[in-house]
Amino acid sequence: MEQKNSTQRLEFLLVGFSEDPGLQSIIFWLFLTMYLVTVIGNLLITLAITSDPLLHVPMYFFLSNLSLSDVCLTTTTIPKLLTNIQTRRRFVSYAACITQMHFFILFAGLENFLLTVMAYDRFVAICHPLHYTVIMNPRLCVLMVLASWAVSVLHSLLQCFMVLRLSFCSDLEIPHFFCELNQIVQLACSDTFPNDMVMYFTSVLLGGGPLAAILYSYSKIVSSIRAISSARGKYKAFSTCASHLSVVSLFYCTILGVYLSAATTHSSHPSGAASVMYSVVTPMLNPFIYSLRNRDIQRALRRLLGLQV
Known about the structure:
single chain, mainly alpha, 11 helices
């Protein structure tokens, strides 16, 4: 059995969704449309927030960073998928696969931390409104975003270094449409126990920790909203965090769907379809979720597009 003599000529085969030429064409146009909608929608949100001085507040500062993260997350996977379909070549080199995996882990982790930071922002705004401007000062906001970037980069580098120590026997199939960490580790010939331990530990710490913080924040938010006497006050307080709660639910529910489908079946297609939900569909829907019921964003978008004098 050939061990890892030269990773430079090692290639992985991305199985994707279907080998049917007719379906390939449908998949290409579907993903191209979703990618363009994601990029245009999120960039419009970012430009609208940047260009409108009234939106230079913590909530929209975090939202603009989330939108940029969404663009980067989809860009790590969709262009390569579209290229593979067009060229009918599904092989990816070892270096390219590790690079894609690195950036996907980075931006998926960044999205996770930004959603947590946004939950904390809503917690302070609703539970401590009188101290909001003091607590959520510009310095703290920038530090929280920088910390999210730093932890995401370090986590991604750790996972990549753990994969680099593995040996692979030959050209291998990845039952996915991109180089997903768990799928690559499962294909290794060498001992993967340290990799599994690192993945489980970081999943609990960097996945379960932020989720617990979000749930705690919203438990306090719900308690504060229930204490408001007027129905109008309750509605106004809830409406400020409804969009974020929708995005959080969509993001975490689809990620749980990936792991549940992977645990119940050995087929690549259910896991790949579930991955599409949180890696493609969620970033595409985020601009719509945040703009449909947000008058400030709608006003900024109309002004940006020249639809409002």
